[in-house]
Amino acid sequence: MAPDNRPLIGPIVVALAGLVIAAVPLQFAGVFGAIGAGDAPMVGLAIGVGLVLTGVAARVRPTFTSELGAVAIVLSLSSVFGALGGLGVGLLLGVLGGSLCVAWKPATS
Questions:
Q1: How many CB atoms lie within 10 A of CB 100?
Q2: What per-residue confidence (pLDDT) applies to 2?
Q3: Pairwise CA distance, residues 31 & 98, whole Å
């Protein structure tokens, strides 16, 4: 937990998952185009950007961290269809970070 009573690790892991998931469609855009999956890179990129924004929002708005964690888990699982789940690494990071966000509770003083 961060010293200012906001979640730290969960949102960072979610944002990192978003970067990994967004990088995969950019890396393999030519392959996706060759096999006829024209819009798949855009879907994967949108999911990756959504995860980065979810991680930032969870850090900025700690009252919504549990809900944003659930959104991160759903986005991570849906990344299998648009970004190959970030080759599995992004998928695992997103589910782990989302779970950390869902489990986070503010410290009582």
A1: 21
A2: 46
A3: 30
Let me know if residue 1 belongs to a domain: no
2 inside domain = no
Q: How many domains does the chain have?
A: 1
User: pTM value?
Assistant: 0.86
pLDDT in tens, 27-36: 776 665 556 5
For helices 9-27 and 89-103, give the axis angle rounded to 10 degrees.
Answer: 160
Cβ–Cβ contacts within 10 Å for residue 72, how many? 33
Supply the range of the domain harboring residue 52: 9-103
Phi/psi-derived region of residue 100, left when phi > 0, alpha when psi is between -120 and 50, beta in every other case: alpha
Residue 9 has pLDDT above 70, yes or no: yes
